[in-house]
Amino acid sequence: MTAVNHTTLEKDGATLDLLDDGQGQRILINRLGAEMIGLQVKDAASQWQGFLYRDGDVAPPASGWANHATVMGYFLHRLVGEQSHYRGSLIRGGNHGFLRHFKFAAPRRTGEILIYSLPPEQIPPEAYPLRVGLDLSYSLSGEGLRVGFRFQNFEPEREAHLSFGVHPGFAVRSVMDCRVTFPPGHYVRHFAPDNFLDGRTEGFDFAGGAMPFSRAELPGSFLISLAGVPSPKFQIEDAGRRMELDFTGVPYMTLWSDGGPFLCMEPCWGLPDSKPQKPFQEKVGIQVLAPGAIFEASFGIHASITP
Q1: Does the pLDDT of residue 66 top 60, yes or no?
Q2: 57-66, 186-195, 198-207, 272-281 — which is least confidently predicted?
Q3: What percent of the chain shows pLDDT beyond 70?
Q4: DSSP state, 259?
Q5: Residues 73-88: what's their mean pLDDT?
Q6: DSSP character for 217?
Q7: Per DSSP, what are the bridge partners of residue 19?
Q8: pLDDT digit string (tens) for 233-243?
Q9: Are 227 and 242 in contact (CB under 8 A)?
Q10: Residue 69 pLDDT exceeds 70
Q11: Is it the case that residue 2 has pLDDT exceeding 80?
Q12: Which residues, in sequence order, are bridge partners of residue 303?
């Protein structure tokens, strides 16, 4: 068995962690936001092929979306007026919360797993007022990549409310032409004009097959409940690359693209703000941690080269 190798790199002013499983797959993580900026697999000629938008590129593009796989939390998407009220405290923050801008310390490694930690005392008080720590993990195995969240509520008497997820953009030549496959189930779309929920939903049964949403509506977002999908496993295929997404246990998914050569399929444990705004603890899809409780969640990506 080939040993997993972890190395640290400096590139364009960023500190990066490279995790290579020695079996032809590797990931590249930027310590700013603990964001995965590279997901790569060796092809038949032993050349590395990237699966993320702008895979491995730290420098921002001249225009368009500038990220790769943003880690979102402790809220998702947007707050009305970039603020929210939570038990007498004011939460302030831009799109997707503070995690994307947090500078993580060097991860600890356990076998094939890299773990990035956020202790409660390092959370900016204006970003989130309670003592809830996070361990964010990335692991490689024969099943592919696994991304895990482990939240711990250090509040001895108070419940904690939060939402989180990951915003990966998968490289495709064209959003209109790539092949996207959905499993069978009952899907519910939550409508959010201007990125805020308006209370409308639309549910429908789907037998499985090609994505049942109009790509022409992108760059608007599709916010989808997966509660009625028994086996939420999705596929994207394009240009000799196949991405299989295992969203088992994930309550929501967001589909988005700005029209560039990528499609975002985002596992989400929560939804955006409503308009008019509700108190933070009443946000749709908010996750609840009992006093002293630990909450764990994960999802998987299997990237492969097709003939």
Answers
A1: yes
A2: 57-66
A3: 99
A4: S
A5: 95
A6: G
A7: 6, 27
A8: 999 999 999 99
A9: no
A10: yes
A11: no
A12: 243
User: By C-alpha distance, which of 92, 254, 272, 97 is closest to 198?
Assistant: 272
- How many other CB atoms are there within 10 angstroms of residue 303's CB atom? 22
Cis peptide before 219 (omega within 30 of 0): yes
* pLDDT score recorded for residue 224: 98
Amino acid at 8: T
138/142 Cα distance (integer angstroms): 14
What are the start-end ranges of the H helices in the chain? Answer: none
Is the Cα torsion angle 226, 230, 231, 234 positive or negative in sign?
Answer: negative
Do the Cβ atoms of 28 and 18 come closer than 8 Å? yes
DSSP β-bridge partners for residue 243: 236, 303
Q: Rg of the chain over CA atoms, in angstroms?
A: 19
Structure tokens belonging to residue 253? 């998914």
CA angle 134, 136, 138 (to 5 degrees): 170
Q: Which domains does the chain have, with CATH numbers?
A: 9-58+68-305 (2.70.98.10)
DSSP string for residues in 119-183 = -GGGS-TTT--S-EEEEEEEEEETTEEEEEEEEEE--SS--EEEEEEEEEEEE-S-TTTSEEEE-
Q: Which residues contact 36 (CB under 8 A, 6 or more apart)?
A: 27, 28, 29, 30, 52, 68, 69, 138, 147, 168
Q: Give the residue-averaged pLDDT of 74-98.
A: 95
pLDDT exceeds cutoff 60 at 229? yes
Q: Which one, of 159, 137, 163, lies nearest residue 278 by Cα?
A: 163
Identify whether the C-beta of residue 79 lies closer than 8 Å to the C-beta of residue 93: yes
**Two tokens, residue 82:** 């970039």
